[in-house]
Amino acid sequence: MINKLVEEIQKKNAPIVVGLDPMLSYIPEHIIKKAFDEYGETLEGAAEAVWQYNKGIVDAAYDLIPAVKPQIAMYEQFGIEGLKAFKKTIDYCKEKGLVVIGDIKRGDIGTTSAAYATGHLGKVQVGNKKYSLFDEDFVTVNPYLGTDGIKPFIDVCKEEKKGIFVLVKTSNKSSGEFQDRIIDGRPLYEIVGEYVAQWGEEHMGDTYSYVGAVVGATYPEMGKVLRKIMPKSFILVPGYGAQGGKAEDLKPYFNEDGLGAIVNSSRGIIAAYKQEKYSSFGGANYADASRQAVVDMIADINGAIGR
Residue 101: beta bridge partners? Predict the structure, then answer.
């Protein structure tokens, strides 16, 4: 699947991923009204609004983007109905040829870690049958429990030719409370980056590993160091746009081949119509506003990194 991600980025000349992180406050009134008219002000109604909102954005932008990144918490907040919308979103995106990165940030050990990996990336055995469940192509994983938490994911990834993105240096302001701690004279995020590179050697695609890293756009100097530590790991870069990351800061995240990183934008794309820049589209044309925001983001990043 890492080969497909690289191919789609090259084909569309778009090193970006759209974060499908819906909140009801983002969804235009006409979509919410229709969903509530059909299902009432219920969890099912909320999930239907989320699904229809996502579908509109995907329909408007799938030909421009290589991948999407749905954040599971935004669906879990609506319980089982929300998870149904999560699954419908994944299936629809895959029908459209998009690579799906499930932002689940799981982290545990042994059979628990294996169960997370099976549920999101693999197949579960039920009697004589096997079933794919959420069926993302990649997921995000928390490495705090060490190799015991990562290896079960890699084992499933090898079977399914899928991948993971390991949290290394996240974009949030308090990330340094742990991630920047000096251990044996070095910041912890560098040590985690070295482990990512080692884990990646176990599961390689043609040019890049199936084991990638999450490194925030808000820390470009750290990104530069981590790029050298993990030359064959794809970097998923959150924090662009709404969190303060700028396109001109992203060049160090890429390798000389112009690849090696994929930049995420969530509300900057999916709620673009709420921004002054795109307000002329209005809620009725929210998906067109999202498409234009994608076009602008691609141009911004490609211009900054010289693609």
Answer: 138
